[in-house]
């Protein structure tokens, strides 16, 4: 699904975000990326999604050779990847339903998408996933009338209507209290298991990473310092990751 070899990212101002990363992530894995602030976690997700260009090494995501991809290849890649953000990134003035339909835009040409010409099938999928994340009563609410936890569930439904092969989540619980964080991770875990969607989530709360992920990747200073099952994450390894 994802293969990185010597993957690196140096930002235009010279800051090194990531260096010499080697890893392989297979279909259906639930991976947590941990590490202190500035370790390179977001950089990695943004490289996988093609949001920022790589500067070194190789990166293959699904059938896309990311460093060589043109804008059309990247659009095709992003259609297959759902991205969940810390701050939800909903369009606040739109309804819950319309926010979820945004996830179908990648399947339409630009004009149809701009005009909001969604098919009955698009709408059926949007309702299905809103029901699955427990928001059947909220189809027509404005996004900004929802609580944080509900908004993040809309964002998950928006990712799911894309019919993604991969979901990338960048600290999706950071704006939520601990109980709601677990609801979000439970949902991601259930879709990982039911639909075999590969999930990669940046998590700063170690206990949540341990509880939900099967594999942990530890980054520090832009370098991979741990990659293994939760069971092998010893105190010594944690010191390597967090210092
Ligand atoms: P994390 O997600 O683990 O907190 P990031 O991937 O955001 O870490 O950042 C890794 C490093 O890259 C940090 O030193 C950060 O300051 C730097 N960085 C991130 N984005 C940019 C950018 N747009 N321009 C310059 N440096 C950046």
Q: What's the shape?
A: globular
Ends apart, CA distance between termini: 31 Å
Low-confidence segments: none
Bound ligands, named by name, code or SMILES: adenosine-5'-diphosphate
Major beta-sheet overview = 6 strands, mixed
Instruction: Report the helical percentage.
Output: 25-40%
Structural class: alpha/beta
Mean pLDDT: 93
* Number of DSSP strand runs: 10
- Kindly estimate the percentage of residues that lie in beta strands according to DSSP: 15-25%
State the strand order across the main sheet: 6-7-8-3-9-10
- How many H/I helices? 9
SSE run: EEEHEEHEHHHHEHEHEEH
CA-based gyration radius: 18 Å
What does this structure look like?
There is one protein chain. The chain is α/β, with parallel strands linked by helices and 243 residues long. It is 36% helix and 24% strand. It contains nine helices and ten strands. It has helices at residues 41-48, 71-79, 96-101, 110-114, 120-132, 148-160, 178-195, 206-212, 235-242, and strands at 2-10, 16-25, 30-34, 56-61, 64-65, 81-84, 166-170, 198-202, 215-220, 223-229. A hairpin with a 2-residue loop joins strand 9 (215-220) and strand 10 (223-229). The longest helix has 18 residues, at 178-195. The model has no long low-confidence stretch (mean pLDDT 93). Bound molecules: adenosine-5'-diphosphate. Residues 11, 13, 15, 17, 35, 37-43 line the site of adenosine-5'-diphosphate.
């Amino acid at each position: 699904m994802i293969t990185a070899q010597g993957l690196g990212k140096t930002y235009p101002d010279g800051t090194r975000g990531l260096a010499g990363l080697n890893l392989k992530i297979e279909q259906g894995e639930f991976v947590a990326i941990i590490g202190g602030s500035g370790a390179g976690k977001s950089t990695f997700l943004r490289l996988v999604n093609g949001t920022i260009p790589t500067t070194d090494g190789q990166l293959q995501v699904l059938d896309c050779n990311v460093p060589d991809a043109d804008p059309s290849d990247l659009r095709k890649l992003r259609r297959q990847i759902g991205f969940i953000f810390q701050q939800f990134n909903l369009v606040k003035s739109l309804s819950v339903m319309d926010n979820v339909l945004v996830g179908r835009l990648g399947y339409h040409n630009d004009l149809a998408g701009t005009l909001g010409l969604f098919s009955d099938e698009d709408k059926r999928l949007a309702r299905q996933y809103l029901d699955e994340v427990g928001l059947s009563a909220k189809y027509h609410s404005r996004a900004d009338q929802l609580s944080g936890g509900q908004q993040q569930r809309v964002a998950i439904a928006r990712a799911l209507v894309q019919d993604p092969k991969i979901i990338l989540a960048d600290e999706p619980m950071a704006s939520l209290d601990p109980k709601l964080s677990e609801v979000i991770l439970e949902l991601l875990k259930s879709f990982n298991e039911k639909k075999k969607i590969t999930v990669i989530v940046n998590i700063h709360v170690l206990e949540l990473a341990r509880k939900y992920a099967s594999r942990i990747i530890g980054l520090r200073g832009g370098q991979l310092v741990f990659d293994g099952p939760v069971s092998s994450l010893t105190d010594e390894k944690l010191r390597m990751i967090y210092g």
